[in-house]
Amino acid sequence: MNKLVSIITPNYNSEKFISQTINSVLNQTYQNWEMIIVDDVSTDNSTKIIESYSLKDDRIILHKLQKNSGAAIARNKAISLAKGNFIAFLDSDDLWLPKKLEVQLEFMETNNYPISYSSYEIIDENGKPKNKIIECKEKLDYNRMLYSNEIGCLTAMYNSDVLGKVYMPNVRKRQDYGLWLKILKMEKYAFGIPKVLAKYRDRSLSISNNKVEMLKWNWNLYKNVEKKSYFEAFYYTLCNVINKLLK
User: Fold this and answer.
1) What does the alpha-carbon distance between residue 66 and residue 52 come to, in Å, rounded to a whole number?
2) Which position among 33, 173, 210, 226 has the lowest Cβ density within 10 Å, counted as fewest Cβ atoms?
3) 3-class SS at 119?
């Protein structure tokens, strides 16, 4: 395997975590990657930390947005700059296990899968395990994904040689969910790797932990991005709530 993987990382005030995130990429057993970090006008020292890494390793590329625009704009800017055969996603507070890229690339290339994802572990804000594993489904199609976002963004990777560059919808939240739905309109299935390849940091104060906000953004995705009827948008939003409760 000699394919280049472009790693898409939005950054906003992640000085507490960004070094660990970058180090988890540097420690990959598969080394043909570029890490494109797009800073969304951070007000902390995270950009200085990123610059210190980029000075040592030119595979780490920092791009600064001129105004605060949200994760969708930051991720899409990184995708536009990407040169890789594959596009992977890693947020600025999450971590990859060392064999993540090696295992995932082999899985995709051996089976000719255009998009894949994996199981992942939940850790707390301080990096301690919460004894919770999110087990991935064997495969997912568009209709199943409407009921719940079953793809962890930190585990997802798609083949841009096959799909072209596919961008996220320009919504403030749930843009990753929108991307998977967009790809699954192009491809019948996304395929899961039943191995823990990443660690998701559960931050109690993050937007993704505001349940009421997430209801609103799910509704927005179904109604305004996926163009579902009011009834369908309500139905799938309700299904998302039930699925979250069952987990």
Assistant:
1) 21
2) 210
3) strand
Asked if residue 179 and residue 236 are part of one domain, the reply reads: no
Quick one: which of 97, 124, 93 has its CA closest to 15? Answer: 93
Q: Match 């899961």 to its residue by tokens.
A: 192
Q: pLDDT tens per residue, the chain (247 residues)? A: 699 999 999 999 999 999 999 999 999 999 999 999 999 999 999 999 999 999 999 999 999 999 999 999 999 999 999 999 999 999 999 999 999 999 999 999 999 999 999 999 999 999 999 999 999 999 999 999 999 999 999 999 999 999 999 999 999 889 999 999 999 999 999 999 999 999 999 986 554 456 677 788 999 999 999 999 999 999 999 998 888 777 6
Are 182 and 219 in a shared domain? no
Q: Compute CA distances 129 → 72, 74, 118, 132, 154, whole Å.
A: 28, 29, 18, 7, 17
Q: Which domain holds residue 171?
A: 5-204
Tell me, yes or no, whether 30 and 69 share the same domain. yes
Q: Are both 229 and 156 inside the same structural domain?
A: no
Count of the separate structural domains present in the chain: 2
